[in-house]
Amino acid sequence: MVEMSSQISEKLIEQCRRGEHAAQMEFYSLLFGSVYNAALRITRNSQDAEEIAQEAFLKFFKRIDKYYDKLPHIVRRIAINGSIDLLRRRKNDFLEFSDKQYLVEDEAPPPNEDFDADIKRIKEAIDRLPTGYRLVITLRLIEDLSFEEVAAELGITASTARSQFLRAKHRLAELLGKGAGAAATGNL
To answer: Which InterPro entries match (predicted)?
Structure first.
């Protein structure tokens, strides 16, 4: 049996497999936050993220037997795929990177000693990244996917994923006012 979170029991999964509505609602409530947040980090739109999360659960419940050995994280992966597909449908050119497009006219705020303020600054800087960079950073650092998984999700090679990740780190360091040296050493 696949390792499950402490709140998701084999009994709950079996009840979901049998189509028991109460069990499906419990499963949904346990994982919705994680699934929604994964979609939100990619789409940056709460309505899109909510819709994608709901669609991910519907797809999961329809094909629960197929996904059974990939529990419990498969729903989040379905949402990540749905988010990327949505961006593709909207024809965002998230694989074209040109340094000329990403000049920032305003200066990054000065470093702040307050941890919450620093986290907010980092999140805002990630949001200011071009879509492709934001996707690579999000999938690699926040969703903890390997470069091979990032490449598969975005339809690129692993070496391109690594290259885009390094460029994204450099750009993020610039936005945070730390310069390229901090990104090169990994000290964002």
So the answer is: RNA_pol_sigma-70-like, RNA_pol_sigma-70_dom, RNA_pol_sigma70_r2, RNA_pol_sigma70_r4_t2, RNA_pol_sigma_r2, RNA_pol_sigma_r3/r4-like, WH-like_DNA-bd_sf
Residues with Cβ within 8 Å of residue 68, at least 6 apart in sequence = 2, 13, 17
Q: Which domains does the chain have, with CATH numbers?
A: 10-89 (1.10.1740.10), 99-185 (1.10.10.10)
Q: Does residue 109 have a cis bond before it (omega within 30 degrees)?
A: no
Torsion of CA 34, 80, 89, 93, to 10 degrees: 110
Backbone angles phi, psi at 103, to 5 degrees: -70, 135
CA 20 vs CA 16, 27, 29, 160, 166: distances in Å: 6, 11, 14, 44, 46
Read off the pLDDT of residues 169-182 as tens digits, 9 standing for 90 and up.
Answer: 999 999 988 754 44
Instruction: Please give the model's pTM, rounded to 2 decimal places.
Output: 0.61
Query: What 3-state DSSP class applies to 98?
Result: coil
CA distance 95 to 117: 31
Q: Residues 59, 53: contact at Cβ < 8 Å?
A: no
Measured at the alpha carbon of residue 98, what is the angle toward residues 122 and 155, in degrees to the nearest 5? 80
